[in-house]
Structures are given as C-alpha cells and as structure tokens.
C-alpha cells in the first residue's frame, strides 16, 4: 500500500476498503489506514479511520476487537468534541448500540459492566437530546439474553412506545428483533406478521432481509408453511453465504437442513465455512453454530451414518459421531460461560433445547442437489411367526401366495423372504416350484434355467399346465435376449400342448392364458425386430391374432380372478401398441385408455402407469395438451408409492413441461421440484436431476423468484453437460441464470454466464441466440462498469445482427455503444459518431423496407434513435456545465474559459434540441401509434428550450402536449405522466418569464 498523501486520498481509501468483502483482510487494511491517518496529523482523519475500523470489526468474525477503537473515539469526544463533524458525532452515538450488544455477546465481560454501559448510553443519549427508543431496545436485549422475561416485556413495550429518531435502528432491523421475540415467546404467526414488510422488500439494509429470512425458517416450518420456508432458505442462504459476520444466520440455515431431512446439504454448508468452527471473536454466534453442528451430527448418527466422514475443525478428520461429541462439548462449555456471567441457566437451557430438537419435516425437497445420505444396512424386520419353524414358514408361504395371486407390487420380495427362510427346510415339490418360478421372475442371467427347474417341479407336483406356463415364461425371456426364433419354436409346442390339456380339462384357464400370453408377447417382439421390413405386415398380423386369442380366452372370465383381468387389460394395451404401429394413433390412444380403465377396475392401478404415459405421449403428438396433462396426472395418481423413484421423477418432469407450456409456472415449478427430489433419491442427480433443476430454475424465474432460481440453476450447472443433456439445455440454463443475476444486481456474474452461453451458441448454424446472448452480455458488462468489454460485446452483437439482417437490434447496439462511449475514453466525439451511425443504419433500413409493418416498426425505431441522440447530447451538456461550474469555483473568476465552456454547452443543447425535434417529426408520421413517442419528445424539447433560456417556447411545447391528450381518460399511466410533466414545464416557464 502506498503512503496516503492527504485527507482526500485517505477518504477514497476508506471508501474502497468498505466495498471489500467482510473478513480479516479488510480488517487488516483498516488497521493500516488508521496508521496512515495518524501520520496526517488531522484529528478528523483519525476519527474517520477509527470509525471505519470499528465498523469493519463489527461486520466480521473479529467483533471482540471493536472495543479498543471505540474507547479511543469516546475519549477523543470527551476531550475535544469540536474535532468531530456532524456525521462523525452522529456515528459515535450510533455505535453505542453496537457496544451494548458487543459486550453482551462476550461472556468475559461482567454483567455489571454491561448494565453500567447501558446506563452510560442512556445518560449520553439524554444529553444529546435523543429518544430513549434505542436505549430501551438495548435494555430489552440484555433482559432477554439473561432470561429476565418480565423485564424484557417491560423494555419491549417501552421500546415500541418511544419515538423513532435518528438513533433508532432502521425499520428492517427493528422488525427483525421484535419478530424474534415473538417467535421465542411461541407466537410464530405474529413474528411472521412483523417480518412481512422486510420479507416483501418494503424495508431493507445491509444485513436485512438476510437475518429475517434466516429467522423465519423455523416459525414457517412449525406453522406448516413449508413452501415459504424452502423459498426463504434458498433466497436467504444466497445472501448470507458471502458475509463472514453472519455466522448466527448461517447457523439457522444449517439447523433448517437438519430439521427437514436435508442432512447432506447441511454438511455442504459446514464445508463452505471451515473457519466458523474455530473463529472465537464472537462467542455468542459460535455457540449458535456449534449447537446446530451438534444437532446435525446427531441426526446423521440416528440415520446410521455415525461413521461417515464429515467437515469439522481443521487439523484432523472427523466422523459424524465424533463431531457430535465435540460440537456438543463446545456448545455446552460456551453456554456455561454465559450462564456463569449472567447468574441464570437461560442460555444453557436454550442451547440444550436446540441440540435436542426433532425434525419438523421428514423430507423437504429444496430443488438444489441434496441427496439424502444412505443409512447403514439395517437388520431385516422379523418375519411373521418364527421362520425357522414349519408354522412360521407356512405363514410366509401363505402371504407370498396371497400377494402373487392378487398381483401386489411387492410379491417378489415376499417370495424372496420365503426362499431365504426355506433354505434348509424340507419342502413339497409344489412349494419349491413356486419359489424357483418367482426367483426366475425377479430376473437375472439364470432366469431361463430357473423357469425350467420350476417347470420340472410343477410337473413333479402333478400340475402339467403350470409346468407349461413356466416354460413359456422362460421362452419369453429368451426372446427378450434376442433369441426370438428359438423362443417361437419353443412356445409353439407349448401352445399346442396347453390347448390340448385345456380341451381335456387337465388344466385351467389361468395356466392356459399364461402360455397364450407368452406366445403373444414373443410375437410382439418379432414384430419389433424389423418394423419396416418386407415381413413387417405378416408379423404384425400374426401378433394381432395371438393377442386376440388371449382376449377370446379371458374376456368375460376376468371377474373370476384378478390375474385374468390383468391378462385382458394387457391384451388391450398390446392391441393399442399394434394400432400405433399401423399408424392409427387415435385408435391406439383409445385402446390404451381402455387398458388403463381395465387395470383400475381390477384394483391394479399401478399396472396402468406405463399406459397412461403412452396416452400422454400420443396426446402430446396430437397437440392435445389437456389430454396429455390428464394422462400424466392419472399416472401419478395410479402409481402412488409403487412407482420407482426414477419413474416418479420422469412423470413429474413430463407433467412440469406440459403444465409449464400452458403458462402455469407455479404448479409446473412444484412438479419440477418433485422431479429433482425423486431423481436424487434414484441416484440420478447428475442426469435426470440436473434436467429437472434446469426446468425448475426456469419456472422460478418466470415467477420473478430470482434468488431461488439462481440458487437452483447454479446447482444444475454443476451437473449439466452438453454431451449428456445437449448444448441447448446448458445454454438455456446459463441464459436464465444470467437473467436472474442481472435482476439481483450481480452484473459481472450475469455477464460471465451470458458470455459462456454465447460461446457455445456461436457454433450453432442458426445465429439468433448467439446474437441475443452477445447483446445481453454487453448490457451486463456495461451495468458492471466494464466499459471496454461492453463495447467489444456490443460490437460483436452488431456484426451478428447485421449478418442476420436485423436492423432493429443493430441500431440498438450502436445506440448502446454511443452511451458507453460518452462514459469512456472516446468521450462525446465518439458517442456522436456512433449515434449518427445508428441514425444512418435506421434510415437506410427504412428506405429499403417494403413491408408496411416493417416500415412502421423502423419508423418508430428511428424516432427513438433521434430522441436518444438528443438525450445523449443533453447529458453531455449538463455534465460539461457542472464541470465548468466546479472549475469556476476553484479558479475564482477565470472568465475566459467559462465563456468558451458556455458556448460549447449552448451548442450542444442546440444540437440536442435539433435531434429531439427530428424525433417529434418522425413520431408524428405514425399518427395515433406514435402519440406517446411524439409527446415524450415534445416535452424533452420543452426542457431543452427552458435550458436555453426560451421559456415561451418551452411553454408552447407543453401546451401542445396537453392539447394532444385533451379528452383522454385517466386510465393510461403514460397520459397522466405526460400531463404532469407538461404542467411542471408551464409552471417553470411562468416563474422564469
């Protein structure tokens, strides 16, 4: 750091340091700046440097350091108050409040000292003529901290009753403190009512709504308002993440994760802030943090993850169980220090209660990538009865048969339990046949051999029909593995045998239907082998005949047994597939719907899910979005808890896309959120989950929920990959994220994402997106103050707009470059040239345009270009006049230079007026369509006439605008604004006449 030469340089350095991120580096810089201030031997310089040092300490993890600079400031005030200007005198009294809270947060400071300081604050505020509002607020904090609830209520009432003055905390901070008291007193709804203006953006400050968002999380969860809690977590954590001083609010977000089944995200939060485990400058927030660390680590241990490695204090590795012990000990020791100082158990009681909390929500999906850690394997629940005894095994067998006979979703698990229990048991051939049969149905490379073993055992048990059915199932497995011809050869013989048995009454319809259905399935596989080949028609016809044989066999009998009802429903679905194959989409959709209805009527809705999806796909192809939505909703309803997580993710994502396409962004976001959650549960976070998060971010953006959308999209981009998800998805995610960041004022980051998206899009054959992204990136760069980079991006965008034959945005890029030039090195001359080029481009495009609509649009664009040219010249003139005035004050009478400056300013204003009059003329050619543009330009011209000392001309223009709107109603906001501006110009003209 170079030596500070004077007071102005010091002030610039202090201002620059104030803009740096919170933390030790900023604090160290403040200490150096104080040393530089002392060298200047200017008392106010030292005062300002001390005030800056105190502020940066307060907003950091080194809060314990702020007492020293404050003591020095107070001594300087008592000795020479005249050295303080009004601002520093105000600041000194303001930070009395910081000292009160700061002492309370340090357990080594005796309570008597805190009370003494409170009295000192009250005395000095009274001498300075300030309201007691801030004093009573500080008294309330002391009483609430030690658990003196009666005194706290009295101080709270007095705080609210006292007048607000310059020493009162801002509205946002006051409402935060008041709401916290209500929540801690069990009045969650009242707390949220107090916080509403802060949450809705009516009041804000440097640390609000950050802390209100964090404090609102548990009250919202307790009230069951989980959607708001999720939103406040995503929005609030984004605000506190970069602010080192907000460990307490950060702890609230960790606690939220522990209480909502988001333990994995809680660990991610701990990993982001390793210094929070050890920073000792603010013991109270360290107590808060360590308490929620213990809560989170205990929760992991409860889930069977006590041995999992987790983030913790530096210097060693930690398991969840070890971290829980360490954090609990740290929190307990800190709480005991406060309680010893306070003479109560209040702080310790609250810390213990916080660490002992139970989850408020079993699982709250957040949208960001947070996969629940897998628990350690648990011992299997004891089976009904004693599986080691014949009676216990009989119970298992009976339950497995009941589930398979009624086609329950988890029947195969029940048979697996039978197989495990019967490993060393002596069983009848029939029992062993069923075990082998269901083991084969579970899949695996040995399925064909298992089916053959089951068939042999069925035969041994005297059930030839079931033996044929098992062998037919084995044949179908061979077809699934590509051996269709061999499977057909096998099933043909089985088909003949079972029909003969059935005709003789040697087997039942159930066994016969099983063989006939297997044959139909294999023929369907044959049809799919070569759908467009020369034998496709023959294969389709053979498959259809086989399916209709199934229907002929079971239709009318499906009331006897659920298995037969399922066969009939599946056969209808197969006919639907055949109809689709033949090109009859309408017939296919109808048959799929009938299959769905049949499954539901049979009490088997979970089998209907895949066919609802087929109906949705066909409806989507036909442009029937309402039909697609109905089918997808039906699939979710019918599948219930039986659909696997990846299937649920897919269904929710499809429904989100359909609903979102219809403009319902709120419900679409809910389904995208569910899709992300189930994708995470399925272990598909990086594939399907990333896609769902990308969609969720877009839907949140459409609702104006920019902070939430940004958090979700950043999470999605961790996994989104052009090779997996496609270039378009990645570009769209970065595009949306850039839009969010721009709305949040994070312009440099917005520019980065827009530029990265543009870099991908530049390789696309169609360059519209590339041009748009380059233009948006230029806007962000300009807003971030990166003028040269913005000009470069606008130049590139302009080249692309020219290549795309888009004169509108070419002209806009030139105008934007003109405004940048005025702020940059090329100055007014470069700005004029670019604006003039924008006018020429627009005029040339207008001259070449034949289409009436295009001519009207280009005329409007030309009017706006003339208007902006005039505004730019007027801006330069105003800035030049201000500069000349300042130089004149400094030079005290160098009249010659002023006259030159006045001439240049007047010439610029005349040029601005000429351009604005051009805009009036151009807008006038558009008739009623250009009315607002024309009147806006007229009023701008009126202001310029006034600046040029021509009040009568200014008034005439204002009267013209009022005449243009004569008879117009008050419904149009633009009309009201134009009239109000015209009235102001008239009043100013009369005053200046």
From TrEMBL:
It comes from the Bacteria. This is Tetratricopeptide repeat protein. It comes from Streptomyces albidocamelliae. The lineage of its organism: Bacteria, Bacillati, Actinomycetota, Actinomycetes, Kitasatosporales.
């Amino acid at each position: 750091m170079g030596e500070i030469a004077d007071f102005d340089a010091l002030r610039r350095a202090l201002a620059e340091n104030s803009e740096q991120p919170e933390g030790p580096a900023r604090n160290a810089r403040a200490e150096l700046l104080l040393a530089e201030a002392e060298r200047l031997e200017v008392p106010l310089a030292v005062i300002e440097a001390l005030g800056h040092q105190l502020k940066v300490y307060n907003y950091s993890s080194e809060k314990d350091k702020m007492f020293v600079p404050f003591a020095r400031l107070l001594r300087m005030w008592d000795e020479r108050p005249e050295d303080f200007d009004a601002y520093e005198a105000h600041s000194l009294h303001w930070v009395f409040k910081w000292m009160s809270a700061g002492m309370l947060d340090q357990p080594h400071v005796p309570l008597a000292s805190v009370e003494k300081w409170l009295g000192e604050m009250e005395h000095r505020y009274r001498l300075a003529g300030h309201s007691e509002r801030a004093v009573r607020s500080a008294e309330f904090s002391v009483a609430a901290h030690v658990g003196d609830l009666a005194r706290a209520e009295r101080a709270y009432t007095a705080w609210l009753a006292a007048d607000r003055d310059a020493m009162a905390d801002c509205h946002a901070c006051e409402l935060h403190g008041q709401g916290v008291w209500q929540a801690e007193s069990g009045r969650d709804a009242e707390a949220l009512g107090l916080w509403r203006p802060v949450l809705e953006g009516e009041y804000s400050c440097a640390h609000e709504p950050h802390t209100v968002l964090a404090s609102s999380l548990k009250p919202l969860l307790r009230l069951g308002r989980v959607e708001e809690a999720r939103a406040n977590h995503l929005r609030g954590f984004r605000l506190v993440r970069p602010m080192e001083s907000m460990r307490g609010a950060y702890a609230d977000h960790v606690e939220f994760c522990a209480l909502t089944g988001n333990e994995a995200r809680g660990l991610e939060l701990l990993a982001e802030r390793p210094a929070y485990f050890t920073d000792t400058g603010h013991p109270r927030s360290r107590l808060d943090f360590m308490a929620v660390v213990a809560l989170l680590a205990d929760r992991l241990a409860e889930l069977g993850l006590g041995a999992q490695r987790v983030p913790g204090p530096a210097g060693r590795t930690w398991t969840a169980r070890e971290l829980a012990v360490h954090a609990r000990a740290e929190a307990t020791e800190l709480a005991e220090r406060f309680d010893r100082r306070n003479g109560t158990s209040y702080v310790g009681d609250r810390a213990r209660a916080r660490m002992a909390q139970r989850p408020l929500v079993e699982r709250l999906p957040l949208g960001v990538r947070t996969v629940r850690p897998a628990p350690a394997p648990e011992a299997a629940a004891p089976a009904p009865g004693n599986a080691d005894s014949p009676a216990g095994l009989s119970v298992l067998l009976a339950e497995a048969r009941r589930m398979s006979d009624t086609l329950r979703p988890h029947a195969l698990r029940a048979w697996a339990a039978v197989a495990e229990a019967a490993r060393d048991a002596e069983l009848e051939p029939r029992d062993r046949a069923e075990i082998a049969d269901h083991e084969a149905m579970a899949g695996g490379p040995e399925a064909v051999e298992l089916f053959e073993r089951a068939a042999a055992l069925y035969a041994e048990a005297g059930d030839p029909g079931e033996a044929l059915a098992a062998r037919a199932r084995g044949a179908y497995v061979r077809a699934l593995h590509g051996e269709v011809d061999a499977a057909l050869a096998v099933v043909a013989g089985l088909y003949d045998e079972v029909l003969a048995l059935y005709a003789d009454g040697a087997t039942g319809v159930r066994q016969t239907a099983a063989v006939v259905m297997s044959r139909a399935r294999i023929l369907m596989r044959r049809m799919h082998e070569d759908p467009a080949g020369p034998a496709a028609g023959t294969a389709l016809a053979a498959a259809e005949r086989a399916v209709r044989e199934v229907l002929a066999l079971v239709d009318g009998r499906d009331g006897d047994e659920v298995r037969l009802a399922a066969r009939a429903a599946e056969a209808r679905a197969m006919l639907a597939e055949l109809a689709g194959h033949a090109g009859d989409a309408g017939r296919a959709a109808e048959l799929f719907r009938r299959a769905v209805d049949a499954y539901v009527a049979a009490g088997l809705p979970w089998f209907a899910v895949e066919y609802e999806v087929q109906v949705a796909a066909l409806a989507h192809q036909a442009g029937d979005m309402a039909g697609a939505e109905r089918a997808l909703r039906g699939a979710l309803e019918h599948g219930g808890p039986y659909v696997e997580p990846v299937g649920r993710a897919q269904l929710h994502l499809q429904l989100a896309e359909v609903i979102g396409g219809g403009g319902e962004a709120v419900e679409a976001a809910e389904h995208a959120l569910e899709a992300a959650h189930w994708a995470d549960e399925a272990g598909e976070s990086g594939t399907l989950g990333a896609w769902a998060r990308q969609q969720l971010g877009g839907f949140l953006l459409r609702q104006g929920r920019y902070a939430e959308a940004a958090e979700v999209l950043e999470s999605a981009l961790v996994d989104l990959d052009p090779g997996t998800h496609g270039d378009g998805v990645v570009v769209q995610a970065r595009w949306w994220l850039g839009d969010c960041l721009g709305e949040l004022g994070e312009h440099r980051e917005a520019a980065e994402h827009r530029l990265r998206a543009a870099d991908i899009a530049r390789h696309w054959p169609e360059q519209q997106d590339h041009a748009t992204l380059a233009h948006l990136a230029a806007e962000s760069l300009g807003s971030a103050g990166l003028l040269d980079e913005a000009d470069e991006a606008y130049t590139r965008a302009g080249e692309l707009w020219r290549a795309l034959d888009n004169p509108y945005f070419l002209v806009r890029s030139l105008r934007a470059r003109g405004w940048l030039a005025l702020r940059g090195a090329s100055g007014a001359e470069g700005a004029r040239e670019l604006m003039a080029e924008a006018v020429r481009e627009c005029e040339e495009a207008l001259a070449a345009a034949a289409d009436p609509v295009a001519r009207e649009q280009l005329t409007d664009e030309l009017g706006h270009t003339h208007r902006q040219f005039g505004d730019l010249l007027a801006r330069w003139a105003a800035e030049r006049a201000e500069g000349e005035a300042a130089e004149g004050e400094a030079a005290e009478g160098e009249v010659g230079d002023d006259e030159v400056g006045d001439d240049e300013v007047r010439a610029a204003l005349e040029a601005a007026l000429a351009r604005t009059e051009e805009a009036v003329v151009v807008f006038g050619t558009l008739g009623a369509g250009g009315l607002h543009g024309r009147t806006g330009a007229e009023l701008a011209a009126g202001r310029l006439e006034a600046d040029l000392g021509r009040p009568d001309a200014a008034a005439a223009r204002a009267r013209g605008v009022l005449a243009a709107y004569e008879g117009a109603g008050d419904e149009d906001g633009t009309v009201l604004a134009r009239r109000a501006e015209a009235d102001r110009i008239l009043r100013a003209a009369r005053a200046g006449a």
